Amino acid sequence: METRDGFAGSVGNTPLIRIPLLSEATGCEILGKAEFLNPGGSVKDRAALWMVREHERSGALKPGGTVVEGTAGNTGIGLAHVCNERGYPCVIYMPDNQSQEKVDILKTLGAEVRVVPTVPYRDAMNYQKQAGRYAAELPNAVWANQFDNVANRLAHYESTGPEIWAQTDGALHAFTCSVGTGGTLAGVSRFLKERNPAIRIVLADPHGSALYNWVNTGEATMTPGPSITEGIGNSRVTDNLAGTEIDAAVQVTDQEMVAMVYALLRRQGWFFGSSTGINLCAAVRVAKQLGPGHTIVTVLTDTGQKYQSSLFNAAFLAERNLDPQAALVL
Length: 330
Ligand code: PMP
Fold this sequence. Notes:
By secondary structure, this protein is of the alpha/beta class. It has helices at about 20-25, 45-60, 75-85, 100-110, 125-135, 150-165, 185-195, 210-215, 255-270, 275-290, 315-320, and strands at about 15-20, 30-35, 65-70, 90-95, 110-115, 140-145, 175-180, 200-205, 250, 295-300. 4'-deoxy-4'-aminopyridoxal-5'-phosphate (PMP) binds next to helix 7.
């Protein structure tokens, strides 16, 4: 019998799941890395664990020290779990445009949550900058710094990438996913390109993000938004993302994403969040570009449970002219 050791030992080694509806419609194998099955419920458990370990290894984080982070939610959730297991208090700064569910989970897990006004990154009161300042002021504290701490990317270079390679026997043609910090895309991309440079890496972007333009023009200029997606899109190129070899970018609308998550809920039994919807739309787009017979891997980042008041709320969608009944066009 295979057992896993504790919370940290349960992070990663997630299944790679075939999505029949999308695979059969495209004639490709559309495979999703089931990151929602991590013990904290999202892809960010890996980054949380690697960043805490890196701060321990460097000596910056000593027993009983405080871990501070600015996070839209999932990184905070991962950090709260990891900190509980290792005995660190955890303080989370979060912008006030995030779902109440994520705030509630963080508090339940024991993190101290500081919800601050949503302001651009260049503003000194931006949630990430506030987290960094607080950690610098507090004795025996570290700022996890997921956007620019490359231990985040390393998590995916050392775990997610090798797992995908092993699970596909190296027989994949493309990998696509959306970017928040870029840790997932950059880490997986680096590992896969080292093994086989022909594997196509495609960045999936929601509207209201600068990364689609960055891939296409080299300039990180914003595209018109907004988007109801959470945890993805960025106005800048983080240290985690910088220098990553990316072959193309696709932009996915919120309506396409909504049609995808509802189709998978009703027809395939899955309950996914918005970034997974963007990722699966991008995987279908890449499959159509490559044609039948290809294997495309993407990331199933988290479940719909944290988005009951938004993505899975009929009134919320109607106010934004998003139709959950719209047909999924494949
Ligand atoms: N999906 C969800 C639900 C997330 O919380 C995040 C992290 N912000 C991402 C995708 C993006 O992952 P990464 O930070 O590795 O780019």
